[in-house]
Automatic annotation (TrEMBL):
Descriptive protein name: ATP-dependent DNA helicase PIF1
InterPro entries: AAA+_ATPase, DNA_helicase_pif1-like_DEAD, P-loop_NTPase, Pif1-like_2B_dom, PIF1_helicase, PIF1_RRM3_pfh1
Cellular localization per UniProt: Nucleus, Nucleolus; Nucleus; Mitochondrion
Keyword Protein biosynthesis (UniProt): no
Length: 839
């Protein structure tokens, strides 16, 4: 085995972890050491490295039509060297010529090889429903038994967030949405035991039309598609819904626009009546009533399983999502094929806004189908509680059952063996998903791999578990443990290269439609900012004003600053304050821990005029992250009576939720039968993702933490709102925000400035204060890591295959050299930890 590994590893340089591509000559002399340190027997190997091709741009017909608006950005060149913005007249084929480019500038060469790109159309529908895929989160009680102060073992019960439709900035725009900006793409085989795919995996970018707002006439269903997510079979409505009988108790709702049905298709989910510009689009209670109704029907006829029922209810609520489904780009689809069909271990990365989260949700959806009969085969985890929440998973620590994970591997293995549930998770899991890997510590990664090998009694990396990992190492790094000055990145783990078959770089930036802005952000990401970019960012210091009454969301590095800012803004508002305390239930011993990291706050104070953010997906346009303003407060009955009596015909502003109107509304709610909950809830006017304004009465929502058996471990009832004048950069990671203000003077950590600014959809919605080049810090190790990846890809393109294995072994060597016995864990959730760590 060793000999075979040695044969395969010929030429690898095991000794110099920091060398990128300049040490080919020396590498051969040191390869033996590398081979001994990292015998390939434990890693998926390939006879020849699997190399997939680079590709950019949209499908040919569209790109031809839009040739003047489709740009390929070279991410490793200063913006000034990149293609000009949309307004410029140069056509799309602005790809630098790599010929003669030096090895030290190898990053450039990746994008420069025009021949490595190919255009190919692909169009797939995204999962139809955003709120349905994940409803339960699995937490074992034992996860918390050893570390009472640990706040890491949090599993979010939230439903899987939606794959949001391409959002169209409402702000005045000088640059019209065009095709996504292509940054770079690479697929690199770093290891591979099983024989790699023999044929090249074709690449192409998603069609240009993905960048446009969904057109009503263009229904995704009408497009030929091989992969429709999620499966239509799980999304059918119960039979009983086809003849919707209105019970007396539901008569009010049926009078509401939400309940309007499609005569042509009685089973179709009713659409909001757009003719009636009522101040309510629907109420959450209406949605809940629907679910209750469905549940009762299920009980009566006993024909639907619990999941089917839930899926049906969600289907009803989110039916519009189907019509505006995101089509995965071909590079995204390529990753799905690799992980779902081929079962490969993959790390996919890419700049902010390239659809990593969207892709991960699609993968989870597909794998859930794959493991429908044996759900325990799939484990969904993330480095932080919040990130886990976003994909309906649990923290990596929680999954592993290692508490803080400070002990050495033998101790941790013993600990897990004592914990039947944790042990079972390790034994049963076939596919492990890790999101936001940039915040996973390298030592932890190695420990987990070793634990898996021992518990599963399988010598392969991670005990043979398929890994699907995503994240962008240029974003927030791991928090170093007390003793360490700097955290170790996961890619520096000794087992990183042997655990991953393919490293894939997503290239298409979807969040920012303006290629110039996307290019500026990419310069930031790499820490190589041109003077032009510095000046453009400095010009964004001007204040932003909007005519819809909503302001910008200010991003702060610490939670303390966020709370202070939100509290002072709330205090300065006139009027009464409404206090909402959550209703928590569950075993008091573990409840608080389970609920600690929940996005839903333990308590929230609101006033009329408060700026809030929705933290649950209501439907396809009111989603987690939608900004809104509190217009007033009223009880459910009042709100529904108002709807029933059709007293709203104007906009919210016309209606005005002032005292007079409110009194008037209350006059309609005297029927004691209808008044069950007299408590007043906020009416919030949201700016929906399609740019429209929608007002809903925000009542209490449920968050649950459940065991796989469905047993509820802890639950919280709370408004689905948080104050949103200010948000922490940590909480903002992963968000797409249309109006952002960032004061870079307060930023202290590498990657923070990039994360903060890259939340913005456009320059028009971004205000940047105190922009300094020095504040934009990219970690040298990260630059080096990506440099290697792209160098390797460049080498692949020039058919210098040996360099690939050299790359893989270098990586292994570097990490082995850096291995230490010191134990480090990631502090997963709290900004305070970061502050403590970084001062
Ligand atoms: N295939 C696609 N077609 C159209 N829009 C897409 C596609 N994939 C992602 N998007 C959109 O791009 C935006 C960014 O996506 P997403 O949040 O998944 O990116 P990300 O890479 O995870 O970003 P970050 O690293 O900042 O968290 C979202 O608004 C999403 O809806």
């Amino acid at each position: 085995m060793l000999g075979r590994a040695r044969d395969r590893a010929g030429g690898a340089d095991a000794s110099n972890p920091t060398t990128t591509t300049t040490s080919t000559a020396t590498s051969a002399t040191k390869s033996d050491l590398a081979k001994q340190l990292f015998p390939l027997s434990s890693s998926p190997s390939s006879q020849q490295p699997d190399i997939t091709s680079w590709a950019t741009s949209a499908n040919k017909p569209r790109s031809a039509a839009l040739s003047s608006t489709t740009h390929v950005i070279n991410p490793f060149k200063p913006r000034s060297s990149n293609p000009p913005p949309l307004s410029a007249t140069r056509p799309s084929s602005i790809i630098a010529n790599a010929a003669g480019m030096s090895r030290t500038n190898s990053l450039v060469s990746i994008c420069s090889n025009a021949g490595s790109f190919e255009d190919r159309e692909s169009s797939f529908a995204k999962p139809q429903s955003h709120g349905s895929a994940i409803s339960s989160v699995f937490v074992s009680e034992e996860d918390f038994s050893d570390d009472n102060t640990l706040e890491l073992d949090y599993e979010c019960p939230a439903s899987l967030p939606p794959l949001p439709p391409p959002s169209k900035p409402k702000l005045p725009s000088t640059a019209r949405p065009i095709a996504a900006t292509t940054i770079t793409t690479t697929t690199i085989t770093t290891t591979g035991l099983p024989p790699p795919p023999t044929s090249q995996i074709p690449w192409s970018s998603s069609p240009c039309h993905h960048m446009f707002p969904p057109e009503k006439s263009q229904k995704p269903e009408s497009k030929p598609s091989n992969h429709i997510l999620p499966p239509a079979t799980k999304r059918t409505l119960p039979k009983t819904w086809s003849q919707e009988t209105v019970q007396p108790s539901q008569s009010k709702e049926s009078a509401s626009p939400f309940q309007a049905t499609d005569d042509a298709n009685p089973s179709a989910t009713p659409l909001p009546n757009k003719k009636r510009a009522l101040p309510w689009d629907t109420t959450q209670s209406a949605v809940k009533e629907r679910r209750k109704q469905l549940k009762n029907q299920n009980k009566n006829d006993g024909q639907l399983s619990r999941d089917e029922m839930r899926a049906s209810a969600d289907d009803h609520v989110t039916q519009k999502t189907k019509a505006s489904a995101i089509s995965l780009s071909s590079e995204q689809q390529h990753v799905i094929d690799l992980v779902v069909k081929d079962g490969r271990s993959v790390f996919f990365t890419g700049p902010a806004g390239t659809g990593k989260s969207v892709l991960m949700r699609a993968i989870i959806s597909e794998l859930k189908k794959k493991w429908a009969r044996d759900p325990e085969r799939l484990s969904v985890t993330a480095s932080t509680g919040l990130a886990a929440c976003n994909i309906g998973g649990q923290t990596l620590h929680s999954f592993a059952g290692i508490g803080l994970g400070k002990e050495d591997v033998p101790t941790l293995v013993k600990k897990i063996r004592r914990n039947a549930k944790a042990k079972n998770r390790w034994l049963r899991t076939k596919t492990l998903i890790i999101d936001e890997v940039s915040m996973v510590d390298g030592d932890l990664f190695d420990k987990l791999s070793q634990i898996a090998r021992e518990i599963r009694k399988n010598g392969r990396a991670f005990g043979g578990i398929q890994l699907i990992i995503t994240g962008d190492f240029f974003q927030l790094p791991p928090v170093p443990d007390g003793g360490k000055k700097e955290a170790k990145f996961a890619f520096d783990a000794g087992t990183w290269n042997t655990s991953i078959d393919h490293t894939i770089g997503l290239t298409q930036v979807f969040r920012q439609k303006d290629p110039q802005f996307a290019g500026m952000l990419n310069e930031m990401r790499l820490g190589r900012i041109s003077n032009d970019t510095v000046q453009t960012f400095k010009d964004l210091a001007r204040p932003l004003t909007f005519d819809d009454g909503l302001g910008v969301t200010e991003l702060f590095p610490t939670r303390y600053e966020v709370e202070r800012s939100n509290e002072s803004r709330l205090r300065n508002l006139p009027g009464d304050s409404y206090h909402y305390e959550s209703l928590d239930a569950g075993d008091p011993n573990i409840r608080d821990k389970l609920l600690a990291n929940m996005m839903a706050p333990k308590s929230i104070d609101l006033k009329k005029g408060a700026q809030v953010m929705l933290i649950k997906n209501m439907d396809d346009t009111l989603v987690n992250g939608s900004l809104g303003k509190v217009m007033g407060f009223m009880s459910e009955a009042t709100f529904e009576n108002w709807a029933m009596n059709d007293h709203g015909t104007g906009s919210d502003d016309e209606m005005g939720f002032d005292g007079g109107s409110k009194k008037k509304i209350k006059a309609f709610s005297r029927d004691p039968e209808s008044v069950k909950d007299l408590r007043e809830y906020p009416v919030v006017r949201f700016t929906a993702t399609d740019g429209s304004h929608r007002s809903i009465l925000c009542i209490l929502e449920d968050w649950k933490v459940e065991l796989p058996t469905g047993e509820v471990q802890a639950s919280r009832k709370q408004l689905p709102l948080i104050l949103a004048w200010a948000l922490s950069i940590h909480k903002a990671q992963g968000q797409t925000l249309e109006r952002v203000k960032v004061d870079l003077g307060k930023v202290f950590e590498k990657g923070q400035a990039y994360v903060a600014l890259s939340r913005a959809v456009s320059k028009m919605g971004l205000q940047v204060l105190r922009f300094e080049k020095s504040k934009v810090m990219a970690h040298p190790r990260v630059i080096q890591f990506y440099d290697k990846l792209y160098s390797a890809e460049s080498a692949i393109k020039t058919k210098k295959a040996p360099i690939i294995s050299e790359f893989a072994h270098k990586g292994a060597s570097s990490t082995s050299a850096g291995r230490s016995n010191s134990m480090t864990v990631v502090d997963l959730d709290e900004e305070e930890a970061m502050v403590a760590a970084y001062g």
